[in-house]
Design a protein that fits this description.
Archaeosine Trna-guanine Transglycosylase, Chain: A, domain 4; globular; alpha/beta; 3 domains; 11 helices; Transcription Regulator spoIIAA; 407 residues; Rossmann fold; 20 strands
Length: 407
């Protein structure tokens, strides 16, 4: 990759930071916050490389600079200085690819190649959906390097197309300064609709242009596999079902029936199509598939007489910011209580959280407390965190957790 224009014209931005920030960076944290900067040699430009020093002018690290973000620098490397050139970028990409070697076979063509900071690509995600790759940016600092990054990925992985997805907060800047829009195809042929991919031998579709995340919840693969193993002979409720991933696994696993509960008609239509794509597989065709469009909290509170043998609760994040953490914990506890009320004897509750601001310990304890106050005997089966293609190398990256409880 070529250096950005500003890097060719001027000395790099030099930053000196607070002792507390020094300690964080030395411990491996990948973010430098704006308030931690004590001195700066010149105004920095979006996406250029900034060099960070301690109070004794010793090199601490180097990363992507964003003059408008509270996360002022996202670290690319720390420790000893390194030359950041094309060979370095290729090596960084190869390291992420190598970490996935052997994780998936030809029955799984949908997974994550790069998981942001935890793979050394801060604020950048790369997902595979068969021959389509989706590049999602969570920081505008990558935009000046987008063409070079895309070229590097295309040369290394040879996809049919690369789709750009942008987090909501950077979409206006991307459009105004770089002419880039969310859902734009950066390379390759146009798309007429969702793309299809395989996951553990099941066929799913992903709306990579407009769908949530990059088009599908790839991070829940391991939990879907667990549900399949526990579904035989059971009536299953999949609350906040999205496009029916858990339900389809349960059906193949021998579930008698599955009920997809979601507030979105578009999501339920996707679930119906996913079931249609897999009718030839054993278990899927004979499984009764019910679609319910409703608010999950309201429906669970109203349908007092419905009982299920396995219930999956996989809601969207209840805490988008730290200030919402306590309320989110209460919401998870309430949702678990509602789910438990609908469990038949020997039923299994699978409760999930994707709220990074709620720790795993807080979430698990909320579910355990709801189980304890239910008046029913219960047994905790297991807890699950991140899938291997979604590593979490620092605290803020730890968002996914699930707990399995039998009643």
């Amino acid at each position: 990759m070529k250096p950005a224009q500003d890097e060719r014209r001027a000395p790099r931005v030099h930053l000196r930071i607070t002792p507390a920030a020094q300690a964080r960076l030395r411990s491996g944290h990948p973010w430098l916050f704006a308030e931690s900067i004590q001195a700066q040699n010149r105004p920095g430009q979006l996406g250029e490389l900034a060099v960070i020093y301690d109070r004794k002018d010793r090199f601490l690290g180097l990363g992507l600079f964003d003059p408008e973000s509270p996360i002022r620098v996202r670290l690319l490397q720390a420790g000893r200085p390194q030359r950041i050139d094309g060979e370095w970028w290729l090596g960084r990409l190869n390291r992420a690819l190598e970490a996935r070697r052997g994780l998936f076979d030809e029955q799984t063509t949908g997974f994550r190649w790069i998981n942001g900071e935890s793979d050394g690509w801060p604020g950048l995600v790369l997902d595979r959906y068969d021959r389509t790759l989706v590049l999602k940016l969570y920081t505008a600092a990558w935009l000046p390097r987008l063409e070079d990054i895309t070229g590097l990925i295309a040369e290394r992985l040879h996809p049919e197309r690369i789709v750009l997805r942008l987090s909501r907060n950077i979409q206006p800047l991307a459009a105004q300064q770089f002419g880039k829009t969310d859902g734009e195809i950066l390379r390759g042929s146009p798309l007429a609709g969702p793309v299809k991919f395989q996951e553990t031998g099941l066929t799913f579709e992903a709306d990579v242009l407009r769908g949530q995340k990059t088009g599908f919840f790839l991070d829940q693969r391991e939990n879907r596999r667990q549900v399949e193993q526990r579904a035989r002979g059971r009536n299953v409720l999949n609350a906040f079902s999205f496009t029916g991933g858990f339900s389809l696994y349960a059906a193949r696993g021998g579930a008698v029936s599955v009920t997809d509960l979601d507030i979105g008609a578009h999501a339920l239509a996707g679930a119906k199509r996913n079931f249609a794509l897999n009718q030839a597989l054993g278990g899927v065709a004979p499984c009764r598939h019910e679609l319910v469009q409703a608010d999950a909290f309201e429906w669970l509170g109203e349908q007092k007489n419905r009982r299920f043998d396995l219930i999956v609760l996989d809601p969207p994040s209840f805490a988008k910011r730290e200030a919402e953490r306590a309320r989110a914990v209460r919401a998870y506890a309430r949702l678990a209580r509602l789910g438990i009320e609908h469990l038949a004897r020997d039923g299994i509750l699978v409760a999930c959280s994707c709220s990074a601001h709620v720790t795993a310990e807080e979430f698990f304890e909320a579910v355990r407390q709801s189980a304890s106050t239910s008046g029913r005997r219960f047994q905790e089966i297991q807890t699950i965190r991140h899938a291997p293609d979604h590593p979490a190398a620092f605290k803020e990256a730890e968002y996914l957790k699930a707990i399995y409880v039998r009643f």
